[in-house]
Known about the structure:
By secondary structure, the chain is α/β, with parallel strands linked by helices. The chain folds into two domains: 2-192 and 378-396, 3-Layer(aba) Sandwich (Rossmann fold), CATH 3.40.50; 214-374, 3-Layer(aba) Sandwich (Rossmann fold), CATH 3.40.50.2000. 43% of the residues lie in helices and 15% in strands. The protein is built from 14 helices and 13 strands. It has helices spanning 19-33, 74-99, 115-123, 135-142, 148-161, 173-178, 228-241, 256-265, 283-288, 308-316, 326-331, 346-358, 360-374, 379-396; strands at 2-7, 37-42, 56-59, 104-108, 127-131, 164-167, 186-188, 214-219, 245-250, 272-276, 292-295, 320-323, 339-341. Strands 3-2-1-4-5-6-7 form a seven-stranded parallel sheet, sandwiched between helices. Strands 10-9-8-11-12-13 form a six-stranded parallel sheet, sandwiched between helices. β12, α11 (326-331) and β13 (339-341) form a beta-alpha-beta unit. α1 packs across α14, α7 crosses α12 and α10 crosses α13 (360-374). The radius of gyration is 22 Å and the shape is globular. The mean pLDDT is 93.
Amino acid sequence: MRVVYVNADCGIPVFGDKGAAVHVREMTRALREIGCETRLLATRLGNGDPSDLVTITELVEAPARAAFGGDMTGRESKERACLAAALGIEARLARLYELHPFDMIYERYSLWSAAGVRAAAKLGIPVVVEVNAPLVEEQATYRNLVLGETARALEAEVFGNASALVIVSEGLRGYVVERGAPPGKVHVLGNAVDLARFNPSARPAALDLDPKAFVIGFTGSLKNWHGIDVLLEAFRLVRQQAANAHLLVVGDGPKRGWAEGFAKGARLEDAITMTGWVDHTALPSLIARMDVATAPYPPSENSYFSPLKLYEYLAVGRPIVASAIGQTADVVKNGINGLLTPPGDAVALADALLALRADPVRAARLARAAAIEGARHSWTRNARAVAELAARLRRAA
Length: 397
């Protein structure tokens, strides 16, 4: 099958640090691994070699914001530049098809693009749109959205006209249907993991820690909705009963300064290691150094995300303590391959961590079950599911 993968999001360079960039790289690589001739159309590449991801990579860069001039705010000029890039991708898809006909378009949904949907309609081929988040809602709530009506209109166009929508969690179903997606076209396909890198054979990282330390770990962005504040409070409680406990925080973000201040105020600087951002290829060994891995998400009315960290913890075979919320509670089976605690409850989180420290046999049993579950969630499996869905769409057409 010949596939064009479209990433029109100007904020996600293919070789970036965000989880979204990891998703783009892994999915394109997996499509090629299952035998698809895959081209990648993106607005930003970043620093990296795409030759191991796809057959051919093409860039359609956004125009410089200054091109829109006038009295526009910086935010509006950025949004208009992204709209222009999407139009450029739409035109490039039509030209590509004339030279190298392809069988389907797979587009990662972004705020300003209906390129895949529009091109597919003109070319008479299926388009599968991957939806990872309620982007319009997120942008309006957490950042700034100037061209809101345009974004909502594009969202309705994409959701209503895609051949199929692949959403990363059940929590997104209501959102996409409410905004125009026919229910029968919506399919859930959670995130996944590269099993060649993340597996129980990963060598633990050589960190300057006491070999007897009980290492509690976390990977991801240090943002409000990742629960780093709950984790630090839980760790403070753990240290009151376990002097050998050590917290390993892998990642960076807006709350790092707050976290460092908390550590200093609680006199825990020597008990906490904060690595900052690390290359994604370094994560398996860091996760392998953890005695327990955590996903301490706070309470949320709509937990729609599909945490990459969760699948990586599982695949490496770490016992997990996570919040009983959203997809996390679906994948982590309490007492079988991990422990679940109420979201935002630092006391319950501390108790669960101490329980695993006190019972290494139980922790080892959870770790073995975690590895078995993790092995079920590969990017290759996801790519096959997408290819099969596209094949059904082509037969139906």
